[in-house]
Amino acid sequence: MFKNLDPILHSQLRLSIMSLLISLESAEFSYLLEQTKATKGNLSIQLNKLKDAGYISIKKSFRNNYPLTTCKITPKGISAFEEYVEALSGYIHKNKPTDH
Fold it and tell me: φ and ψ at 27, to 5 degrees?
């Protein structure tokens, strides 16, 4: 039986964000914008969805009088990401022929 895929992570942009954050201590909004090629508005919306799910934390501050948004994956986000990857792996390997 196939495992259900997390609907929060089953979005290309949210999955991209989580894939970047899983290997980083934290990332600035500008870095995520550059890496994902998303628009500022769409990235902002998707970050808020991940934050509302408890998968990331968002810290807003200032650097040289300019707004600075920093994102960090939470322990809940790490678990959700790992479960998603495991579930997706089940789809990929489910009907893979075995060597005899």
Answer: -145, 140
